[in-house]
Amino acid sequence: MTDERARCGWESDFPAFHATPAARVRERLQSFVTDHSPEQVRAWNESVPPLQGEVAEVLRAHASARHYSAILEYELPMESRRPDVVLLVGAGVMVLELKGKLRPSQADLDQAAAYARDLRCYHRECHERPVVPVLVPTRARGYMGEEAGVHVAGPDALDALIGRLAQEEGRPGVDRARFLDEEAYCPLPTLVEAARELMRTGDLRRIRRARAATQPAMDAISTIIHDAARTRTRHLILLTGLPGSGKTLVGLQTVHAHLLDDLAVPRAGLVPAAPAVFLSGNGPLVEVLQYELKASGGDGKTFVRGVKEYVKRHSGKRALTPSEHVLVFDEAQRAYDAAMVQAKHPELPPKSEPELFVEFADRVPAWCVVLGLIGTGQEIHVGEEAGLVQWRHAVEGSPKAWTVHAPPAVARLFAGSHVPLDRREALSLDTELRFHAARDLHRFVGDLLAGSPVDTLATTAASLEQAGYHLRITRDLEVAKRYLRDRYAGDRDARFGLLASSKDRHLEGFGIPNDFQSTKRLRLGPWYGDEEGAYGGRSCRELVDCVTEFGAQGLELDGVLLAWGTDLRRVDGAWSNDLARGYRSKVPVRDPFQLRLNAYRVLLTRGRDGCVVFVPPAVELDETYTYLAAGGFRAVEGGA
Asked: N or C: which end of the chain has fewer CB within 10 A?
């Protein structure tokens, strides 16, 4: 009953599933899941017969049930995750996660909710259909209730749940062949996965949601680049967007786009090997992208470079002319001001990074485009606080003619400038992609760091929970680790890791290696990219090494274990950074407290699925724990 091309262990209509001996069904599952364990086989032996019995009950109660379908061990295309059972029931879909226990853990509930969320968001046949997650503790009996949209029921109660969903039919049923179509499920890749695919195929998967959100910007950028090449002119493009809205993906696509291949102007008989380069002052992002691109068979340094290295190569005595016509500057709002550039490059005259890059672009023969990718509210390094106005000063000070293209929110910074300005709505990415359906995450984090009332926070947190984004909290580090390991037990490709602030003084005493030496030794490429158990044991999934805000910005994980430090704590109803480590810098720090808030903004928004916060059991953090828990972080004490 299983098509060899299908990505599942078993698929059939209800009558065939009920009529097939359980041993034969189990044999099919064993053939499909080649790395099955004895425990897995035992679980199939225990769960398949009761499931067939419940299907028989549904067939007796509902004549239309002969058209329903059962799919077991459905492997999500391009992923390694497999929901235990998917039932196509009338006009809806039920996702069953079976656990051999009496009562489920919070991690079990969150795992079931995530399967339903991903089908709802990324599966063509689930669009605008009810997708119902059901957690089945196989040792329990009866219906046990519903929590945040997840039904909990023993195997004996499944027939009633199926019947309830069947009564909500209002459109044609889900076609099994269309559901199992390889192209029906289009997940959003992480940044690391996207880098691998860009090097391997030269393009990203045609992801409906990501493409719909970013394609207008890609089209606008492509048009401007072609116009620049045709008219032999110079242009500054500023692309804005929330963290997680796809800015970096747009930048990577731009530098890999084949549309640039025939636009480079030959120099001394040579055409540049790479017509565009992705530049970032975010050293960890560069390290991780280069590691992944190299692992995918390419030379990561051809397309991805660090800003510091690039400045050194193209300024000073050497002052080489860039070989690229398109310079993509990631996190352009964080470009160093003149004081910080001189601190990093004392041999150079006091100029900001925007001034230097406009100078570099002015040397490129015929034409050049600088694409600045702009996030908001994440300036965490000293010297990054001067803001976007530096780009205005840079193009205004150029001896060459420039045109600026920007969305309305940024265009106001160029009011009264002599530089031509082209306002384009398409250059604003306002749809969050990283966080699936959880569009309220940044509002929640913003309100949290603003110290909003707990009732306001709890309302938004409930909305996030309903959308499948999970905020969890514990004062036991081992409980937090166990939660994440259980949550991603069936997903070897998932990445979850330990994050903490760099300025906290006390976390080391609670088992969090966020000290300078420990984080300095950490290799970020393997931490983000390697599988658990890889050589050296330095994958983030080991939950051993810790990354700070400096190693996390611009990157993402599926799940985050955030160790909350004393450097940002609640004191008498307000946030305080009184216990933060000091800032050692060659340039003045304008607002240390704002940098702390921005650091936690980064740390709180690195997880695509959710964040579990570990608040150490220290009296200094009691008020912080109370505030976070009352504001919507659900406790997982002892229950993970």
From this structure: N
pLDDT digits 0-9 by tens, 72-122: 999 887 677 899 999 999 889 999 999 999 988 999 999 999 999 889 888
Structure tokens at 245: 């809205």
Phi-psi region of 420 (alpha: psi -120 to 50; beta: other; left: phi over 0): beta
Decide: 323 and 273 in contact? Cβ < 8 Å: yes
pLDDT value at residue 379: 42
pLDDT at 423: 95
Share in percent of the chain as helix, strand, coil (round to 5): 45, 20, 40
Q: Which architecture characterizes domain 191-429 according to CATH? A: 3-Layer(aba) Sandwich (3.40)
Residue pair 479/640 in contact (Cβ under 8 Å)? The answer is: yes
Per DSSP (E only), the strands in 397-448 are: 402-406, 421-423, 428-429
Residues 259 and 274: their CA atoms lie apart, in Å, by: 12
Q: Which residue has the higher pLDDT, 555 or 604?
A: 604
Between CA 572 and CA 586 the distance in angstroms is 34
Closest Cα partner for 513 from 499, 534, 527?
499
Give 142: exposed, middle or buried? Use CB within 10 Å, 0-12, 13-18, 19+: exposed
For residues 619 and 627, give the distance between their C-alpha atoms in angstroms, rounded to a whole number: 14
What are the backbone angles phi and psi of residue 318, rounded to the nearest 5°?
-75, -50
Say which residues have a Cβ less than 8 Å from residue 536's Cβ, sequence separation at least 6. Answer: 526, 530
For domain 10-184, give the CATH number: 3.40.1350
Kindly state the helix (H) or strand (E) to which residue 559 belongs, with its residue range.
strand 557-563
Strands 304-306 and 276-280, sheet pairing: parallel
Residue 597 in tokens: 């808030």
The SS3 assignment for 20 reads: coil
3-state secondary structure of 400: coil
- Give the pair of three-digit tokens for residue 349: 């005259």
| Higher-scoring residue by pLDDT: 23, 313 | 23
Q: What is the pLDDT of residues 550-584, one digit of tens each?
A: 999 878 899 999 999 999 999 999 999 998 887 66
Q: No. of H helices and E strands in the chain?
A: 24, 23
- Give the separation between CA 238 and CA 388, rounded to whole angstroms: 10
Nearest-angstrom CA–CA distance, 424 and 174: 41
Task: Mark out the alpha helices in 232-326 (DSSP H runs).
Answer: 247-256, 283-295, 300-303, 307-314
Q: List CB contacts of 243: < 8 A, sequence separation 6 or more.
A: 375, 376, 378, 432, 434, 442, 605
Write down the residue that tokens 């099919």 correspond to: 28
CA distance 207 to 220: 19
